[in-house]
Amino acid sequence: MGTDTFAPDVNGAARFTERLAAGLVARGHDVHVVAPAASYRHGTWTEPHEGQRMTLHRLFSVRWYPHDWLRFALPWTINRNAAKVLDELKPDVVHSQSFFVIGRGLSVQAQKRGIRIVATNHVMPENMLEFTMVPQAFQKQLIAWAWRLAERALGRAESVTTPTRRAADFLERYTNIRDVHAISCGIDSSRYTPSFEPRTENRILFVGRITGEKQIDVLIRAVASLDPELDAKLTIIGGGDQKKALQELVSELGLGERVHFAGYVTDEELRQAYTDATVFAMPSIAELQSIATMEAMSTALPVVAADAMALPHLVHDGENGHLFEPGNVADLAEKLTDVLTADTDKLNAFKNASLRLIAPHDIERTLNTFEALYRGEEVVDPVTEIGAEQSAE
Asked: Where is the Glycosyl transferase family domain positioned along the sequence (predicted)?
């Protein structure tokens, strides 16, 4: 697997790659991951991830300073490094998780060697603009270039996948790539602990990168407008370049006692935060799937999410929570209030619906589908979108 972001990075693409690799190792596959070094120490060694040990080929990387933690492998050395790894390992298949540097380099070299390529797209170039420092006048040209890069890199693969049908449609719209598979990132719901105990507090939870496209400022302003009688508290788990600005916003709105920035937490602390929450909020406008929302649903949480990109695949308005108009503070506050004031029967209905709707995203189905793609078999995309009639059954 080739990826431009991997643990200890915390984002959807990194988490998906880590979980997919670990799941394949558990099934007896010999998995090697090529990723940027997390520091200036680089080389090949074994690392534990998700309870499994796998081989990491950590390439020399440098920090991308417009971003608060992102590191990248050097583009002008990737072909040489990719060729070296492939000639040494002679793998059956290369799975590219990115089209910028490492995934692109591995795809180029794998194609030359006749190695089967599967590619997954996790990125919309538009979401990278805030970290490029490119003047606005040149941003359209940059986006067009990135989509051309994506088309060339992903076009080398025998099979191209994205996490949702909406993301697949988006990719087909902006490139000449067709027959893109929609394969959920998958989740092991058994790792999460739902709670149906009566709530004694109104706890709102957000998990994710603290960056512009997540629109966390909209969530904070919505919390500020809630009825004080609700005594709602917001916990924000994650880190990112917008943290300082959002902390200043919290101070301006007088929410110091009601909003807590938890930063990065352990997996155990994260799972406990889900269990303790009353409702999960996802105001982002750029989710290609949202693993955090899937984790929340696996913990039987109602979700209030922006009606944008792939979130409607997971959140069915009025069923396991609510969708709100992206960027609309008043609408978000209204939808949060509906959940926070719900009686026991209504709240439990939301929670049970989350469990039903997340069931088709079981990680075992995802692993089965990717194994078939690795073997070069034709696959039927797993059905993960449950309609209202199915959900009511």
From this structure: 197-353
Judge contact between 111 and 11, C-beta under 8 A: no
Classify residue 257 by burial, with Cβ atoms within 10 Å: 0-12, 13-18, 19+.
exposed
Q: How far apart are CA 384 and CA 161, in angstroms?
A: 14
What's the topology of domain 12-186+362-374? Rossmann fold (3.40.50)
pLDDT tens by residue, the chain, 393 residues:
999 999 998 888 999 999 999 999 999 999 999 999 999 999 999 999 999 999 999 999 998 876 677 899 999 999 999 999 999 999 999 999 999 999 999 999 999 999 999 999 998 776 665 555 666 777 788 788 888 999 999 999 999 999 988 889 989 999 999 999 999 999 999 999 999 998 889 999 999 989 888 999 999 999 999 999 999 999 999 988 899 999 999 999 999 999 999 999 999 999 999 999 999 999 999 888 899 999 999 999 999 999 998 899 999 999 999 999 999 999 999 999 999 999 999 999 999 999 999 999 999 999 999 999 999 999 988 877 665 434 434
For residues 74 and 60, the answer to whether their CB atoms sit within 8 Å is: yes
CATH superfamily of 189-359: Glycogen Phosphorylase B; (3.40.50.2000)
- Domain ranges for the chain: 12-186+362-374, 189-359
Can you read off the two tokens belonging to residue 186?
Answer: 């998958």
